[in-house]
Design goal:
[2Fe-2S] cluster binds at residues 209, 214, 217, 229. With 244 residues, the chain is mostly beta strands. It has three helices and 15 strands. The protein folds into two domains: 2-89, Translation factors (Elongation Factor Tu (Ef-tu), domain 3, Beta Barrel); 95-239, Nucleotide-binding domain of ferredoxin-NADP reductase (FNR) module (Rossmann fold), CATH 3.40.50.80.
């Protein structure tokens, strides 16, 4: 874990209230890990957790939604502004365990950590399922890394009208990976377990410290409560206690 101050080289709104932030530097991270990010002195006390969207030679990219005071401040960042980042944090995806035909399922901003994962899974046959409320974002660049991309929108403006879970047939895959709203991940995990298909989920609980000290982000597992930031955010669906 490293705390550094870096320069912003891009902060672009790619959809309504969805921004792509790129920070200059030499970074290393596993798909599924995150950084704690802060760009203020007099704003919120704590930094905000943002998952790794991509890692390239000249920097690291984050995809975030404007949902509160902290992310609103992020949205105002300009090129060459300074930003403090701490990480990488958390346990990401174990690429060695991901093999065969894989369904990657995202809901909304859940596409953020899955972008980097898909690019790193060079030996797998991947179908991508993306669910959105209305506007579609963060998908176009992934066509060349996947066999199929299936999209659903709740209003029917693009692709299937309805929920992404209505498109998924877990029994057609060796493994399913998902990230998105908790209710969606619960549904996907239950569908997979009912068909005895291995499933991994990237949890998106609220976090405060990012290092497992404050216990704000606990989630229920069969072995008791676990810290999403330290023990996750990636969990095997078989280990979680699902409420759906």
């Amino acid at each position: 874990m490293i705390c550094t101050q870096e320069l912003v080289i891009e902060n672009k709104e790619i959809s309504s209230e969805i921004f792509k932030l790129k920070v200059k530097g030499n970074f290393e991270a596993k798909p599924g890990q995150f950084y704690m990010v802060k760009c203020w002195e007099d704003g919120p006390f704590l930094p905000r957790p943002i998952s790794v969207h991509d890692v390239e030679e000249d920097g690291i990219t984050f995809l975030y939604a404007v949902v509160g005071k902290g992310t609103k401040l992020f949205s105002k960042l300009k090129v060459n502004d300074k930003i403090q980042i701490i990480g990488p944090l958390g346990n990401g995806f174990d690429k060695e365990k991901i093999k065969g035909k894989v369904a990657v399922v995202s809901g909304g901003i859940g596409i953020a950590p899955l972008n980097y994962l898909i690019k790193e899974l060079k030996e797998c046959e991947i179908d991508l399922y993306c669910g959105f409320r209305d506007e579609v974002y963060g998908v176009g660049s992934l066509n060349k890394y996947t066999n199929n991309v299936k999209i659903s929108t709740e209003n029917g403006s693009v692709g299937h009208k309805g929920y992404v879970t209505e498109l998924l047939k877990p029994e057609e895959y060796d493994m399913v990976i998902c990230c998105g709203p908790e209710v969606m991940m619960q549904k996907v995990a239950k569908m997979c377990l009912d068909k005895d298909v291995e499933v991994y989920v990237s949890m998106e609980n609220r976090m405060a410290c990012g290092i497992g000290a404050c216990l704000v982000c606990t989630c229920k597992t069969k072995d008791g409560n676990k810290r999403t930031c330290k023990d996750g955010p990636v969990f095997n669906g078989r280990d979680l206690v699902l409420d759906a």
